[in-house]
């Protein structure tokens, strides 16, 4: 991502919003006789690759699961390395994101992070806030149940203060209080690393997303693998409750 990316190859088949559960770092390292941390470090290159590819392909929003609200349960040393890595990547990469017109944001409960990290996050968000080519959301200390509960709390507060009327609340109003409420609906949810679960990621947002699971471990998931996932989305028929015939007719 050293140079500014100017191409936009998006077509009708391109998912507007893609999210990725970046899983398999630990196993990638263990297969090589290395410590789990080595896998996380090598995973950073895959993050670079997918951000750059998403931008080139004309994806409008890319959401990456970096650290779940449950990942605090890992050994303290691994958690600490992950935090350091997050800090390092933010320091190194934000300028490049900015140059490429990418708006950066963190979703999740950042209150548990160190003040230093929170400051870095704020700086990155402020620097890139007016960029419009793509939105990169990094989910950190994120949980889908937290997201829904957090939205419910905000809605309840508005009702209590009289700013919102109970009968104004519908799905779209509620959605606007969730983490990605200002972005297009999630089209494609990818999980690397061979497991078939959502691990408390975008529970609300995944309602009608297409799922793509691959055995490829995250550090091996690069441009070609990502393009394969995007192309597979182009072949799906999204019916949103209708019949296949209805969908064909409305084309
Ligand atoms: C995903 O890789 C990265 C994070 C959860 C931070 P893992 O560390 O979960 O790797 P595996 O699943 O143990 O191989
Ligand atoms: C999901 O991976 C979280 C991230 C990729 C950040 P995990 O490896 O934590 O998921 P589980 O625990 O196997 O479900
Ligand atoms: Mg894992």
UniProtKB/TrEMBL annotation:
Q: Which PROSITE patterns match?
A: UPP_SYNTHASE
Q: Which organism is it from?
A: Thalassotalea marina
Q: Where does substrate bind?
A: 24-28, 36, 40, 68-70, 72, 74, 191, 197-199
Q: Which Gene3D superfamilies match?
A: Decaprenyl diphosphate synthase-like (3.40.1180.10)
- List its EC numbers: 2.5.1.31
Name the reaction it catalyses. Answer: 8 isopentenyl diphosphate + (2E,6E)-farnesyl diphosphate = di-trans,octa-cis-undecaprenyl diphosphate + 8 diphosphate
Q: Where is the organism placed in the taxonomic lineage, from the top?
A: Bacteria, Pseudomonadati, Pseudomonadota, Gammaproteobacteria, Alteromonadales
Cofactor(s) the protein needs = Mg(2+)
Q: How does it assemble?
A: Homodimer.
Active-site residue list: 23, 71 (proton acceptor)
Name this polypeptide is given: Ditrans,polycis-undecaprenyl-diphosphate synthase ((2E,6E)-farnesyl-diphosphate specific)
Query: What are the recorded Gene Ontology BP terms?
Result: cell wall organization; peptidoglycan biosynthetic process; polyprenol biosynthetic process; regulation of cell shape
Q: Which SUPFAM superfamilies match?
A: Undecaprenyl diphosphate synthase
Q: What does this protein do?
A: Catalyzes the sequential condensation of isopentenyl diphosphate (IPP) with (2E,6E)-farnesyl diphosphate (E,E-FPP) to yield (2Z,6Z,10Z,14Z,18Z,22Z,26Z,30Z,34E,38E)-undecaprenyl diphosphate (di-trans,octa-cis-UPP). UPP is the precursor of glycosyl carrier lipid in the biosynthesis of bacterial cell wall polysaccharide components such as peptidoglycan and lipopolysaccharide.
Q: Which residues bind Mg(2+)?
A: 23, 210
Q: Which UniProt keywords apply?
A: Cell shape, Cell wall biogenesis/degradation, Magnesium, Metal-binding, Peptidoglycan synthesis, Transferase
Q: How is the cofactor bound?
A: Binds 2 magnesium ions per subunit.
């Amino acid at each position: 991502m050293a140079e500014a990316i100017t191409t936009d190859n998006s077509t009708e088949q391109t998912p507007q919003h893609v999210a990725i559960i970046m899983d398999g770092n630990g196993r990638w390292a263990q297969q090589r006789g290395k410590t789990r941390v080595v896998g996380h470090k090598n995973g950073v290159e895959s993050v670079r690759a997918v951000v750059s590819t998403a931008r080139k392909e004309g994806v409008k929003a890319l959401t990456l699961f970096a650290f779940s609200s449950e990942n605090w349960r890992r050994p303290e040393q691994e958690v600490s390395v992950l935090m350091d890595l997050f800090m390092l990547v933010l320091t190194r990469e934000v300028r490049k994101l900015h140059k490429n017109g990418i708006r950066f944001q963190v979703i999740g409960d950042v209150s548990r992070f160190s003040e230093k990290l929170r400051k870095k996050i704020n700086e990155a968000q402020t620097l890139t806030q007016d960029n419009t080519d793509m939105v990169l959301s990094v989910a950190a200390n994120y949980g889908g149940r937290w997201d829904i509960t957090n939205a419910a709390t905000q809605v309840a507060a508005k009702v209590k203060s009289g700013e919102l009327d109970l009968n104004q609340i519908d799905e779209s109003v509620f959605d606007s209080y969730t983490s990605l409420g200002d972005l297009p609906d999630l089209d494609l949810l990818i999980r690397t690393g061979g497991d078939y679960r959502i691990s408390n990621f975008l529970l609300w947002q995944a309602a009608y997303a297409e799922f793509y699971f691959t055995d490829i471990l995250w550090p091996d998931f690069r441009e070609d693998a990502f393009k394969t996932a995007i192309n597979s989305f182009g072949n799906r028929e999204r019916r949103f409750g209708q019949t296949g015939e209805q969908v064909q007719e409305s084309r």
